Structures are given as C-alpha cells and as structure tokens.
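re: the backbone from monday

yeah here it is again, tokenized this time
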C-alpha cells in the first residue's frame, strides 16, 4: 500500500530525515551527509516530487554515478553511491517506487590504498603530544584535546560536543551524549587524560557560562569539529610530520593501529571505537605488521623452484 507521496524535494528530504533519525538512529552529522548526497541527486536528475521517482531506470542511476566520477575521489564517490542505495531502499519501503532500484546503483571500484588507515608511529605520536606549550591556556587546551583523541579514540565532533557535566570525576568516567550511531556511551577517564582536562579547566579555560569544555578565547565560544581537527593539523605542522590525511581521525586510526599491532583483538578495538559492525574494524588487520610478517614467505633462492 502506497504511503503519502511528498510533492516537493524539500518534503522528500524531510521525510527521509525523520527516517534516518528514528529508524537507523544516525547521528545528526551522518544524517546531514546522507541528506546532502540525496539533495544533489534529486536536483541533478531532476526529481520534483516523490511520484516522479517511479520513472527512474537503472540507466538513470548509472548515468548519475558515472557523471560524478570525474569530480570526486573514489572513496567519496563510493559514499555517494551508498547514500543513494539507502535512499532507494527507503523509497521502495514507502511505496514510492515499485522495484529494487538500489541493486542498479553501480559499485564503485576503490583501490585498497584508499581504505588503509593512515597512522603515526610511536615516535611521531610522542613528538605530537609534546608539541603544545602547556605554559599557556591554549596549549593546555590543545594538550587535553590531543589526549582525548589519541588515548580515548574520540571523533572530532565528539570532542567538540563534550560538556562540563559529561565529566564524572568521582566515578572516573566520561560520558558521550551523542556518538556517530546516535547512542550514548560511557568511557573510562584515563588518568593521563583526566589530569590534562583538570589542568585546562583550572588554569586555561575562560571563566564563562558556556557548557562546552573546549572553547576559543576572546570571546569565549565553543570549538567545532573543524577547530578540533585544526589542533591536530597545527601540531603536525609544528613537528614537521607529513601524512596523507591530517586531522583528528588520524589519532583514532593511530590508537587502533597500535593496539592491533600489540595484540589486541579486532573485537576489543571495535568495542573501544564503538563500531556497530566488526566489518568497520577489519581494515586494521592490514596494519597488523607482526601478524603479516609471520604470513610472508621467504624469497626463493636462485635455482630453486
């Protein structure tokens, strides 16, 4: 039975937003990424109402994805294709389309190199964590941010969203109200991280009514996810460390890569990083150098078949 079909692209996106928030329970930032991809699709095809979705064909979908292949990196194009598949499944559930068009969205080839996480060596991480000048308020703030990223594996948005009431000093825990999958989480407040946070709160954070922990100065205002990633980028530049993808996520990858290289299981890392599916963590098996070395075969000697 067909449900009410929205009559404008805006209404389609509103309906889809409600679905993303209520059914898979995606975080606001993830919802926004999906909606951005679908808004671009509806504008390009173009689709002016949900009824017009019934006219879509596999050729239309192939043409749309192919046309964007010259403008996006493979990893980004694969994300757009994934967003489109999910939207088409939703449209079929709503009765706006009658066939499984999600199966017609082309698979995007992406080399393994695009999937392998970049990470810092132990020496590089040590150098980065020594880079903030903790004699200044900004340096104490940056040190606390770096440790939240490097020791707890937080995302940039999660660090930016931290509020004063999320810290439970007596229990030694840190609460995340909204993670990427939309649920809350409670993490142990490691001593090193707790000391850095306390140092910043006592002798670095501006005295104001803002609930967010990490603030800009003059005037005091909350930092956003870009500002958090900027802390990492500045530290890397200061240390002269060049990596393919600088930013906050580099330290999350570094934590996971070092753990797997030191014997942690993928399940343990998935739990730490709060991944919903173990497949999201399996990429770190490719950076388990000790295990990979054990699998390598010696180069055959000359004359030996």
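seq for it, each position gets an aa:
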């Amino acid at each position: 039975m067909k449900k009410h079909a929205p009559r404008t692209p805006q209404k389609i996106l509103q309906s889809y937003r409600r679905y993303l928030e209520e059914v898979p329970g995606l975080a606001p930032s993830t919802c926004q990424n999906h909606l951005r991809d679908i808004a671009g699709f509806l504008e390009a095809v173009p689709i002016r109402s949900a009824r017009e979705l019934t006219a879509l064909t596999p050729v239309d979908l192939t043409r749309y994805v192919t046309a964007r292949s010259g403008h996006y990196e493979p990893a980004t194009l694969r994300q757009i294709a994934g967003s489109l598949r999910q939207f088409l499944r939703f449209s079929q559930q709503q009765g706006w389309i009658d066939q499984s068009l999600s199966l017609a969205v082309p698979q995007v080839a992406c080399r393994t190199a695009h999937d392998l996480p970049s990470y810092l060596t132990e020496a590089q991480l040590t150098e980065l964590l020594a880079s903030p000048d903790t004699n200044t308020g900004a340096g104490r703030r940056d040190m606390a941010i770096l440790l939240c990223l490097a020791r707890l594996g937080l995302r940039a948005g999660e660090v930016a969203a931290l509020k004063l009431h999320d810290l439970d000093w007596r229990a030694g825990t840190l609460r995340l109200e909204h993670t990427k999958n939309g649920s809350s989480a409670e993490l142990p407040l490691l001593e090193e991280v707790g000391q850095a946070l306390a140092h910043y709160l006592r002798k670095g954070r501006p005295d104001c009514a803002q609930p967010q922990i990490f603030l800009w100065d003059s005037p005091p205002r909350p930092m956003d996810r870009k500002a958090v990633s900027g802390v990492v980028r500045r530290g890397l530049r200061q240390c002269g460390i060049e990596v393919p993808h600088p930013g906050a996520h580099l330290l999350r990858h570094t934590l996971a890569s070092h753990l797997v290289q030191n014997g942690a299981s993928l399940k343990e890392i998935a739990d730490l990083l709060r991944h919903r599916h173990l497949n999201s963590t399996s990429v770190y098996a490719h950076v388990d150098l000790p295990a990979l070395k054990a699998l390598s075969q010696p180069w055959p000697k000359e004359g030996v078949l």
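The chain has two domains: 9-114, 122-289. The first strand starts at residue 167 and ends at 168.
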